[in-house]
Write a structure and sequence with these properties.
With 247 residues, the protein is α+β, with helices and mostly antiparallel strands. Helix content is 18%, strand content 40%. The longest helix has 14 residues.
């Protein structure tokens, strides 16, 4: 139990990292903004650089019994969908996450965001992808190259059953790693855990996290993606998942 709680603290620490200090860039001017019911944050991660975090505003969260869903988009394409509630006293029983990985690799950029219209916000992800968010609900509406569907945030027991309530699927020409859901922890950090890679044609390749990730030599509590570019990814896919189509 102590180990689980410690892991949960690390897990939550990732979500609520400190916002980076001001720098002379457009992204830093937008480091923390609330647009209607959505909060947009640009945060400095420990090793990966700047990433984009989004979630419901405080008022919207409190109107839903202190339940929230937030999203963290990392430069390497990883996406964590975080569920936080007050449904139980222990955070190890009232928080969890579903983690994905958007592929193929695109050219990285400094994250930023802008209001598209009265009800939507466009997010320019550090991985090079573009996402659309609702400023009314604070939710993710779509990601370039992927389809997104979701259910509302309700009692945590139901969120566990729906694995966070957010389903993402790749379109043709794209790949998605689905690391799955984990209560009180981050699923992608468990190297022994099963995961899957999906293509835009409905094909699925079962793998283990250890096939694509390894312990970070700089921090044993973290993992890093084994591949740095599409060439390295392609070599792996041809051997491990030859039936998947993405190029």
């Amino acid at each position: 139990m102590k180990k689980l709680l410690a892991t949960s603290l690390v897990f939550l620490g990732t979500i609520f990292s400190l916002i980076v200090p001001d720098r002379n860039s457009a992204a830093q001017d937008n480091k923390y903004t609330t647009i209607k019911n959505i909060e947009m944050k640009i945060i400095m991660s420990k090793w990966e650089g700047l990433y984009l975090s989004t979630g419901q505003s405080y008022d919207l969260k409190m109107s839903n019994k202190n339940r929230e869903r937030s999203y963290s988009f990392l430069p390497n394409g990883k996406l964590m969908v975080f569920i936080g509630t007050s449904d139980y006293d222990r955070m190890s029983k009232s928080t969890g996450s579903r983690t994905y990985h958007l592929l193929p690799f695109k050219e990285r950029r400094e994250p930023s965001f802008s209001r598209k219209d009265e009800s939507t916000v466009e997010g320019y992800l550090p991985s090079g992808y573009t996402a659309l968010f609702s400023s009314e609900t604070g939710e993710l509406l779509g990601i370039e190259g992927f389809t997104v569907t979701m259910t509302p945030v309700v009692h945590f027991d139901e969120m566990v059953k729906s694995r966070g309530g957010v389903e993402i699927r790749p379109q043709k020409g794209y790949l998605l790693v689905d690391y799955g859901w984990r209560t009180g922890e981050t699923s992608s950090n468990q190297l022994w855990s099963p995961s899957a890679i999906l293509d835009g044609y409905g094909n699925r390749c079962a793998i283990k996290n250890s096939d694509i990730s390894m312990r970070d030599p700089r921090d044993s509590d973290e993992v890093v993606f084994k591949f740095k570019n599409n060439q390295e990814l392609d070599k792996f896919m041809k051997v491990k998942c030859p039936k998947l189509v993405w190029q």
